[in-house]
């Protein structure tokens, strides 16, 4: 149903569309080389230009695949429809075939269309226009036939302005989050190396020497198996979310039907996949009392009284730990780090009181980071709900009113 005063259009009626240049062997090697946008450079509402690749464009292609302000660049594959509006003046950057370039014919504001695409992402409407092979694709033919419920330009402008208020709040919160994360990294670098010493409970600065040990003195491998089949919660470990249910990550349960040989991990214990420790897939189980991990995983605990678990968890995410883990994979099969290899890593051990103090200070930083992330998530949910109202016409905005 089209709201009163709106019209139903197809993308092909509203935009000139073009796919980017095909990346081939000649384009990779021939000079001169020019930067181009790929799928990973396009995020919702913004571009990430920190890691641009290059290829050859001839003079005709430089004209054909150049960008002008207000062009929309959209992902053809992967997260189909993900798009942003190009506003980079003076940046000579081009785009490859994995991306659609949409140039408005004048009836639609690019920022309105970007918001519209974001609002239908993951819905049946967009899914019906998506071709699915090994990965999802939004072909040019399907994209051009995609329907758009279109308000007047005046109402579009008002909607874009309202959504921009949420975008600004989200951006501000994300910048604060990035700052807090950087501050924590800097604090970790000082505290976990002993460059900065904290005050003890008497107000005196810790001064004792840190003992040089190997992790084998501080860790115990846990080898319990699910022989009695009493546990059925199968988990995996990711480098971004820690312990997760596979069905949350892959939309379906991917574990074997028979989990009797799976390893048991209990609350407070650690788990990791030996072939992915070098990319940060490591976590402590905090969310559940217990769970199961594939037999390939390593499960271990820290020796209480010698090593503070919170201190160790922070150390494992430090640059020092990451460098030592990467160094330990040299010459190993598939960069694998088994429990024995982990135990051989050198470790500087403060006294328990200092470990706990350091962990307590870093925990305060973690709290700030968690609060900011929750604020960002809430703002995004508010924006999503607002988009569902404004971009469907359920709530109307008029030129002379704020909102109806």
From TrEMBL:
Domain Type I restriction modification DNA specificity: 3-176
Keyword DNA-binding recorded: yes
Coiled coil: 362-389
One Pfam assignment: Methylase_S
Matches recorded under InterPro entries: Restrct_endonuc_typeI_TRD, Restrct_endonuc_typeI_TRD_sf, Type-I_RS_S_subunit
Keyword set, alphabetical order: Coiled coil, DNA-binding, Endonuclease, Hydrolase, Nuclease, Restriction system
GO molecular function, a single term: DNA binding
Any one biological process term the GO annotation gives: DNA restriction-modification system
Keyword Aminoacyl-tRNA synthetase: no
Family membership noted in the UniProt record: Belongs to the type-I restriction system S methylase family.
Protein name per the record: Restriction endonuclease subunit S
Species of origin: Aliidiomarina halalkaliphila
């Amino acid at each position: 149903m089209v709201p009163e005063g709106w019209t139903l259009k197809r993308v092909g009626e509203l935009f000139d569309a073009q796919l980017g240049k095909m990346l081939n062997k000649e384009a990779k090697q021939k000079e001169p080389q020019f930067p181009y946008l790929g799928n990973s450079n396009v995020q919702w509402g913004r571009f990430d230009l920190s890691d641009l690749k290059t290829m050859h464009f001839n003079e005709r292609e430089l004209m054909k695949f150049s960008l002008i302000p207000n062009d929309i660049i959209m992902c053809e594959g992967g997260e189909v429809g993900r798009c942003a509006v190009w506003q980079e003046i003076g940046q000579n950057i081009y785009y490859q075939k994995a991306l659609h370039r949409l140039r408005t014919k004048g009836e639609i504001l690019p920022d309105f269309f970007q918001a519209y695409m974001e609002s239908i992402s993951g819905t049946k409407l967009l899914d019906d226009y998506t071709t699915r092979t090994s990965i999802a694709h939004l072909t040019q033919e399907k994209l051009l036939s995609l329907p758009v419920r279109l308000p007047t330009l005046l109402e579009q402008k008002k909607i874009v302005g309202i959504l921009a208020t949420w975008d600004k709040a989200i951006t501000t919160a994300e910048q604060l989050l990035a700052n807090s994360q950087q501050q924590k990294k800097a604090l970790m670098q000082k505290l976990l190396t002993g460059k900065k010493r904290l005050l003890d409970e008497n107000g005196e600065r810790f001064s004792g020497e840190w003992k040089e040990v190997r992790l084998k003195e501080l860790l115990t491998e846990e080898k319990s198996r699910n022989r009695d089949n009493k546990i059925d919660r199968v988990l995996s470990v990711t480098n971004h979310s820690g312990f997760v249910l596979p069905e949350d990550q892959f939309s379906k349960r991917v574990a074997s039907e028979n989990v009797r040989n799976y390893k048991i991990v209990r609350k407070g214990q650690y788990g990791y996949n030996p072939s992915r420790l070098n990319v940060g897939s490591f976590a402590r189980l905090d969310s559940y009392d217990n769970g199961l991990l594939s037999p390939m995983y390593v499960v271990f605990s820290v020796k209480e009284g010698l090593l503070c678990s919170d201190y160790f968890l922070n150390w494992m995410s430090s640059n020092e730990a990451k460098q030592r883990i990467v160094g330990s994979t040299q010459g190993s099969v598939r960069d694998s780090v088994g429990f024995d290899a982990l135990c051989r890593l050198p470790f500087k051990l403060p006294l328990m009181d200092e470990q706990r103090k350091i962990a307590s200070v870093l925990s305060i930083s973690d709290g700030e980071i968690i609060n900011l992330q929750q604020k960002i998530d809430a703002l995004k949910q508010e924006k999503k709900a607002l988009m569902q109202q404004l971009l469907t016409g359920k709530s109307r905005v008029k030129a002379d009113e704020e909102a109806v």
